[in-house]
Amino acid sequence: MKIGELSRRTGVPTRMLRYYEEQDLLHPERSDNGYRVYGPTAVYQVQQIRGLLDSGLTTEIIRRIMPFLDKPDDILMHPRCLTPEVDALLRGEAERIQQRIECLARNRDAIYAYLAAIQDAGRR
Amino acid sequence: MKIGELSRRTGVPTRMLRYYEEQDLLHPERSDNGYRVYGPTAVYQVQQIRGLLDSGLTTEIIRRIMPFLDKPDDILMHPRCLTPEVDALLRGEAERIQQRIECLARNRDAIYAYLAAIQDAGRR
DNA sequence: TCAGACGTTCACATCAATGTGAAGGCAAGT
DNA sequence: ACTTGCCTTCACATTGATGTGAACGTCTGA
Of B56, B77, B98, which residue sits at a domain end? Predict the structure, then answer.
């Protein structure tokens, strides 16, 4: 698929799809005329990228952890890939993600608690 | 406490504390000489703000939802506060927060799954 | 074949969050 | 009194994620 269709399917402007490529997050093929050609999985990849960006991760971090997300088990067969640095990177990032989750969950709960309390007060 | 101490206690540069005030996220008193004076709870407030900013919320959204987080029950007694707009705002924001949580949790799990699989492969 | 929709690159603008420095006032210790 | 450190405001710079437009090539249907 070409960039316009991917944009339509994901709701992400073409400008951004080109930007993500520049940031090494997407790697479309090129057809003879130079047009970007995306595989069908690109839709999910883009949604993945968007979700992580919206959650406060930078393109740099996304670039570094993406290779380890949703990988087929083939890659896992080569534990050589896991240098101590990569291990530390992944663990550190997972922990920071966990921090964010806890912060967000706390505040989500606070909001719902507020709404529930109001509801409750109104019913009385 | 003055801005320097708050900065030391939270690790957030004074420049940012002044910025958060400008963005209506903090409202310190002023002493006679014009110095900002923060109450003891400011430490938690700043951590709260930092956590939300790191999680991808903008200062604008934080400003709008903060009044409803960690409020003493006094305020809850006035359900008049909950106009339909505020209700929609809070629900909408809570849902978007939930989206982020799910995205982050998915990827945290993926990272840990990867690490576990490596661990597993290495033990064989 | 020509128009219109889509693609390309390049470049400059914006916005939010943050860094940094200048110029000057206030406070506390020696 | 003077130094040192903290405070104030003002202002300009930077970085990352975006918006937007120019100038130009490519495909496709009437």
Answer: B77
**A16 to chain B nearest CA, in Å?**
18
Domain range for residue A123?
Answer: 83-124
The alpha carbon of residue A7 is apart from the nearest alpha carbon of chain B, in Å, by 21
- Using the CB atoms, write b or e for A28-60: b if 16+ within 10 Å: beeeeeeebebeeebbebbebbbbbbbbbbebe
Which CATH number does the domain housing residue A39 bear?
1.10.1660.10
The answer for A7, left when phi > 0, alpha when psi is -120 to 50, beta otherwise, is alpha
Q: Is B55 found in the same domain as B32?
A: yes
Spatial distance between the Cα atoms of A59 and A52, rounded to a whole number of angstroms: 9
Q: Which residues of B touch A51 (CB under 8 A)?
A: 99-100, 103
pLDDT value at residue B45: 97
Locus of tokens 């430490």: B43
Nearest by CB to residue A100, choosing from B54, B68, B77, is B54
The kind and range of the H/E element at A119 are: helix A84-123
pLDDT digits (tens, 9 = 90+) for B11-36: 999 999 999 999 999 999 999 999 99
Q: Are residues A55 and A114 in the same domain?
A: no
Each residue's pLDDT tens digit, B76-92? 556 566 788 889 999 99
- CB contacts of A122 in chain B (<8 Å) are 79, 82
Interface contact B55-A114, CB threshold 8 A: no
Helix (H, G, I), strand (E, B) or coil at B54: helix
What is the number of structural domains in chain A?
Answer: 2
The pTM score is 0.91
Residues B17 and B67 in one domain: yes
